[in-house]
Design brief:
single chain, about 425 residues, four-stranded antiparallel beta sheet, 12 helices, about 35% helix, binds (2S)-amino(hydroxy)ethanoic acid, binds manganese (II) ion
Length: about 425
């Protein structure tokens, strides 16, 4: 049934085509924001948008937007989309599915001669993942008018700031404010995304309706000790920051497990100077801590921070922390959830509600407009990995539910 609304073959072909941009030798995709790979991806998506009959433009934050006019061009826009930047060595569905399904929905409407009261815009947001600058969602924050100016000074591993990277990409950071949408100009934001977890697979369902999006904090730990000879320094005399970091990371796992709902991850760690036969001088790592309930997450943080200082004292090292980003959890709006529920019923999919452990651009848009998400089943729940996979049927089912959801939201009152 879903395939009558959208052209599944076209969606799938575009997904696979876009998945070749930024592909690494091992099969993973790396498309970091403001890089040539991301530019190539946006150029390909812009071509798809033009094929779909959309008017295409990029805003001052580099968000790529394709617009289908409404019968009332002044009416608030229904925004659909996701992102095309990736994590390091990621998969081909995280982000692109939402952008390409959005394009497929409006292209199908245009081909069917479907008119909507509200204009519809498909957006590929700039830098959702935050992989390059360790600060994400630049594009959606700019659209919501909440991008902190100091963030423009955050640098990547090569010392290039966000502002400089924007300039190198032909954008003017001083005009970022022009990307901000005025309250009342966006009717709703709906994002189709892979679930990136196992819930839909265990429920045996292709699609689900998201109830809320977990909040996350990224905290950089710096552990400073004393660089010394690995062979000549007795264990009892060491001030070893690596051993201290290992103990702190074990505490993170222990305290996150304790609540049963919190997730704590250390995916990035750097050692200085990094010689095999040198007790490190300094170790830096970043904690990604999440929970659907802020108070639970913050309690875990307090405990981890306190225990880290005890370890620092015991080992005579210095532990300092720096908060890189702090996103609150947000609830999806009833209006969007109800539209997605009606769409599922219309298409014969049992409505199924689930929370999102992953963060998404909707978190940033929630202050601007009602937001909602539709999930597509992930195989083995894997994501942020070359093994990320969803079947064509499930992607087409998700696009059909998105079509119906958007159609309801874009009709006039
Ligand atoms: O980290 C996340 O949850 C998302 O993939 N940016
Ligand atoms: Mn992601
Ligand atoms: Mn994503």
């Amino acid at each position: 049934m879903g395939s009558k609304l959208v052209q599944g073959e076209r969606l799938w072909r575009r997904l696979m085509e876009l998945g070749e941009v930024g592909k690494q030798p091992g099969g993973g995709i790396t498309r970091l924001s403001f890089t040539t790979e991301e530019r190539r991806a946006k150029d390909l998506v812009a071509a798809y948008m033009r094929e779909a009959g959309l008017s295409v433009y990029e805003d001052a934050a580099g968000n790529l937007i394709g617009r289908k006019e409404g019968t009332n061009p002044e009416a608030p826009v229904v925004l659909i989309g996701s992102h095309v930047d990736s994590v390091y060595n990621g998969g081909c569905f995280d982000g692109p599915l939402g952008v390409l399904a959005g394009i497929e929905v409006v292209q199908a409407m245009n081909e069917q001669g479907v008119k909507t009261h509200h204009p519809i815009e498909v957006v590929a947001f700039t830098d959702e993942e935050g992989a390059r600058f360790r600060f994400g969602m630049i594009g959606s924050r700019a659209m919501a008018g909440t991008l902190p100016s100091e963030a423009l000074n955050y640098c990547d591993a090569n010392g290039i700031s966000i502002a400089e990277a924007m300039r190198q990409a032909g954008l003017d950071p001083h005009r970022l404010h022009e990307a901000a949408r005025k309250p009342g100009t966006v009717k709703a934001y709906v994002e189709l995304h892979i679930e990136q977890g196992r819930v839909l697979e265990e429920a045996g369902l292709p699609v689900g309706i998201v109830t809320g999006i977990a909040g996350l904090v990224w905290v950089k730990f710096t552990v400073e000790g004393k660089a010394e000879h690995a062979g000549a320094t007795p264990m009892s005399l060491r001030r070893d920051p690596m051993a201290a970091a290992a103990q702190i990371i074990a505490v993170i796992e222990e305290e996150a497990r304790r609540t049963g709902t919190t997730v704590g991850t250390v995916g990035q760690l750097h050692v200085f100077p990094g010689g095999i036969n040198i007790i490190p001088e300094r170790v830096e790592f970043v904690l990604d801590l999440r929970d659907l309930q802020t108070e639970v997450r913050d309690q875990v943080w307090q405990t981890v921070a306190a225990r880290a200082q005890v370890i620092a004292k015991e080992r005579n090292v210095r532990v300092t922390t720096e908060w890189l980003q702090d996103m609150p959890p947000v609830l999806c709006s009833d209006e969007v959830k109800h539209a997605a529920e009606a769409a599922c019923k219309q298409l014969g999919y049992p409505p199924f509600w689930l929370p999102s452990g992953a963060a998404h651009d909707g978190v940033q848009l929630a202050p601007l407009c009602p937001i909602g998400m539709i999930f597509v089943r992930s195989q083995d729940g894997v994501s942020h990995s070359p093994a990320e996979w969803s079947t064509k049927d499930d992607c087409v089912a998700g696009a059909a539910v998105l079509y119906h959801t958007v159609w309801q939201l874009a009709q006039g009152q």
